[in-house]
Amino acid sequence: MRPAIAAQCTNDQGKFWEYHKILYTNQKPIDSGWVSKDNLKKFASKITGLNMSNFNSCLDSEKYKSLVEKDLAFGSSFGFQDTPSFIIVNNDGSKPEILR
Question: Apex CA 64: angle with CA 32 and CA 26, to 5°?
Answer without folding.
Answer: 30
